[in-house]
Structure formats: C-alpha cells, structure tokens
C-alpha cells in the first residue's frame, strides 16, 4: 500500500491536513463488490456524519465498528495506518498490522449534543471550528467525508435527462441508467489572498454576511476560462479596489463548504491608498501592522478566521515573518533589464583594450557570378583577422608558409574565381597605421 503524506515544501504554509496518509485504493474500489467486502472485513471503521458535523471525543474523531447491513449512503474513504487511529482501533481483530479501511456514512438530520447523552466527553463539532484541534489524519478524513457526502446530496439526478442516478465505484461515481451519463465528484477552485503593501502591512476585509468585527483575507472563485493569477487580480480589484502584483503561491487546502479548493497566495498592492470596499460583498477594508492587528485581536475589536482555515494560516505566516525581507513594491523594484548587448570578455591572446573581433561566417566557394559588393565585404573581413589566411590552391614555400595573392590585387578580384579561403594557424603583422588596407603583406620570415 502506498500512502504518501503531503509535503508542504520549503516556504509553503503548514495546514491542518499536512502529514495525513490515506490510500484511496482507486484500482480496488472500481470493483462492484469492493465496498461490501471491506464493510464485512473485521477492523473496518465507520465515520458517521450528522449533517455537517461529526462526533468527537476530546480532540479525536470517534470511529465505530462496521456492523449490520451496508448502508446505502456508505462511501469508501480509503485505508489508513492503524497506529494513527485512536486507542482501541490500533489493530484489527486478527491482531495483524494490516491497513484499516474507513467508510463514511451520512445521516441527513443534524445532530445535537443531546444525541450524545450518556457518553462522557463526547460532542458534535464542525470542521470549520474543530479542524485545527484534530490530528492531520482526522482532519483529512473528515474533510474527505464532508466533500463526498455533500456531492451525493447535491447531485441525485442526471444533469442530462433528469433520471435518478445510481451510485458506483464505492461511492465515487454516479451513472444515469437512462442515458449512461457519468458524474464524478466536483471541486471548485478558489483563490484566497493576503494583500501586503510597501510598509509590510496587511489588508483585511469584513464581509456583509459576517459580524461587523470579523476580518479576513480576500477570496473568490476562478471563473470559466480564467487563470488562477487573473482571478486573483480580478477579485482583489473588485472587492478592495487595489491592483496587485508579485503574486506568490503559498499552498492549497480542500474546503468542503461545499466543494472548494482554496489556493492561497501573497500579493503586493501597487497603491495602498486607493483601497476601498466594493459595498456589495465587502463592508469595510483596513490596513494593519503586526502590532495593530495583535492589539485589536486581543481587545476583541477584530475577530480573525478560525485556525482551521488557510486564511488564518496566511495571516499567521505574515505575522511570524517579521525578519523576512519586505516584498518588492513598484517604488522599490529593481532597475529594468537593459536590452543592450553584454560586454564579452576578450579572448586569450588579445590585448585587454582590444575588443574581441567577431568571427566571419563560414563561406562556401565563391562562384563566378558572385557580386562585387559581396566579394568586397568578404575581403574586408579577411583583412581584419589576426590570423593568416591562405588559398587552398596557393603555393607554399620551402618552409611550408602559405602563398599569398600578388600585391595590388583589386578587392573585387580577390579569389573571385577560386574556391573558399580558410584560416590557418600562425600570426602575421599588418602594415602599421594602415587601418583599412586594400591588400595583404607577406609575413616576414622568422615570425
């Protein structure tokens, strides 16, 4: 069994579900009899939901043993390490350290504390308020159970023809018996952003649907055909009136209310003075320093999001990173990159003050129909080289030195009827003071 915990990575947020190991067993749960088999397997545990709440005992979820017939609302969540479950569920009946299967069962009627009467220390709690108190495994299982059961409650009928659908794949697919359309659990991506300014303050907003003293970061759904970055910039400008840049991804969190995937970011406001609420969703926006926000929260003037949410994780990361460098802002951005050519260091053998000379492109044989201008251009390139050039068919002296064209050869006639010229090792010295010679000098003997 392969169970890999989520690694938040360097610099990313640490969220309540990080470290949970759940093997969803995708290949096995596709078998029609899989859910019935694990329900009857000794050691299988059941996570019961009443509405949006689960039963807690202290800071752990309560898991029941799977007994009786298989409920219609049962959904397989996956297999977990028995050592990570509460006491009494650490091993199955056979005493083996095999993975334990967890199944969730939803009950539509909300439960209250009276339903747990007679059980000391047992309460019913919601993920939004109890998630930070749970272990990573409990938080991940409860999140998964709430998301999948909410999907079943909202999609009982086929979206194409309206026929009641049938549950398949151990609760992870609904199929229409009439038209054959298949429906899978839906997840809606949403961006959530902590906006900072050049003074490293944070911008928080209070929504109309909240209490007047509750403030949080800004969030919104990614619309159809929209990128995450475009949705982030649009939501911040719509709700708070500021234009942001320097967007930095910080992590994601599944938020099953009812089916969101929150993508957390930091962003920097270009002009903090233009911040204002939209009046529709947002009632008020305020800039806070770390000291101001700490004092307001301690005095009860500001209520922050619950510790279960990624919004609170973003705020706490900002409050904790006091010694981190401030994010770049438009008035402190580095100078733009120049588009001029970079100075290339001189090649070995050249004087430090002499700029490197470009190598001429490799030329093929010059044909008789080559133009005089092209021939003259190649001739000038050859004259400015620091290495001797020779004609492949030129004569050689007894010492092996290459032959050279006769003095006074016109530039337009240099090798115009011969094959290509090629460089050769060695050095020669040009006529001093002659910056644009029209002929080559024979190298002196002994050089």
Task: Characterise this structure.
This protein has helices at 26-29, 34-39, 127-130, 136-154, 228-240, 290-299, 310-320, 372-383; strands at residues 45-50, 53-57, 60-61, 64-65, 75-80, 100-107, 122-126, 166-168, 173-175, 182-183, 188-196, 202-207, 218-221, 244-255, 260-269, 282-288, 389-390, 422-423. The protein is of the alpha+beta class. Among the domains are: 26-154, Nucleoside Triphosphate Pyrophosphohydrolase, CATH 3.90.79; 188-331, Nucleoside Triphosphate Pyrophosphohydrolase. Strands 1, 2, 3, 4, 5, 6 and 7 form a seven-stranded mixed β-sheet that branches. Strand 11 and strand 12 (202-207) form a beta hairpin. It is globular. The model is unreliable at 1-8, 323-344, 349-354, 361-370 and 386-440 (pLDDT under 50).
Instruction: Please state the second-level CATH architecture of the domain at 188-331.
Output: Alpha-Beta Complex
* Percent range for β-strand residues: 15-25%
Largest β-sheet summary: 7 strands, mixed
From the N-terminal CA to the C-terminal CA, the straight-line distance is 77 Å
Mean pLDDT: 78
Helical fraction equals 10-25%
| CATH superfamily descriptor of the domain at 188-331 | Nucleoside Triphosphate Pyrophosphohydrolase
CATH topology of the domain at 188-331: Nucleoside Triphosphate Pyrophosphohydrolase
SSE arrangement, N to C:
HHEEEEEEEHHEEEEEEHEEEHHHEE
Structural class: alpha+beta
Let me know the number of strands: 18
Continuous helix count: 8
Low-pLDDT runs:
1-8, 323-344, 349-354, 361-370, 386-440
The gyration radius over C-alpha positions equals 38 Å
CATH class of the domain at 188-331: Alpha Beta
The 3D shape can be described as globular
């Amino acid at each position: 069994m392969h169970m890999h915990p989520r690694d938040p990575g360097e610099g990313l947020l640490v969220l309540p579900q990080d470290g949970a190991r759940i093997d969803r067993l995708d290949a096995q749960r596709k078998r029609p009899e899989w859910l019935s088999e694990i329900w009857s397997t000794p050691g299988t545990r059941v996570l019961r939901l009443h509405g949006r709440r689960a039963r807690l005992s202290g800071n752990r979820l309560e898991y029941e043993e799977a007994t009786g017939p298989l409920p219609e609302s049962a959904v397989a969540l996956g297999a977990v390490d028995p050592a990570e479950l509460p006491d009494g569920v650490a091993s199955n009946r056979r005493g083996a350290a095999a993975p334990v299967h967890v199944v969730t069962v939803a009950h539509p009627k909300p439960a209250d504390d009276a339903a747990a009467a007679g059980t000391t220390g047992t309460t019913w709690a919601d993920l939004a308020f109890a998630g930070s108190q749970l272990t990573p495994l409990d938080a991940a299982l409860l999140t998964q159970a709430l998301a999948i059961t909410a999907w079943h409650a909202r999609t009982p009928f086929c979206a194409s023809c309206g026929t009641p659908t049938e549950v398949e794949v151990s609760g992870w697919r609904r199929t229409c018996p009439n038209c054959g359309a298949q429906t899978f659990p839906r997840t809606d991506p949403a961006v959530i952003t902590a906006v900072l300014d050049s003074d490293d303050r944070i911008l928080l907003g209070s929504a109309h649907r909240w209490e007047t003293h509750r403030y949080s970061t800004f969030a919104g759904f990614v619309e159809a055909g929209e990128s995450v970055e475009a949705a982030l910039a649009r939501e911040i400008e719509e709700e708070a009136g500021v234009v942001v840049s320097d967007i930095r991804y910080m992590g994601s969190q599944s938020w099953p209310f009812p089916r969101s995937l929150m993508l957390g970011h930091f962003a920097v406001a270009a002009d903090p003075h233009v911040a204002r609420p939209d009046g529709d969703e947002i009632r008020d926006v305020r800039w806070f320093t770390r000291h101001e926000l700490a004092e307001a929260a301690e005095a009860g003037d500001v209520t922050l999001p619950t510790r279960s949410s990624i919004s609170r994780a973003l705020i706490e990361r900002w409050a904790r990173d006091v010694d981190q460098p401030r994010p770049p802002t438009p008035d402190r951005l580095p100078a733009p990159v120049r588009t001029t050519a970079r100075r290339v260091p001189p090649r070995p053998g050249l004087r430090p003050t002499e700029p490197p000379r470009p190598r001429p492109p490799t030329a093929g044989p010059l044909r008789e129909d080559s133009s005089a201008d092209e021939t003259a251009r190649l001739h000038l390139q050859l004259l400015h080289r620091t290495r001797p050039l020779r004609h492949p068919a030129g004569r050689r002296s007894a010492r092996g030195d290459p032959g050279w064209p006769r003095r006074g050869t016109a530039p337009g006639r240099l090798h115009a009827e011969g094959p290509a010229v090629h460089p050769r090792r060695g050095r020669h010295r040009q006529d001093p003071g002659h910056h644009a010679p029209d002929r080559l000098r024979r190298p002196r003997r002994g050089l």
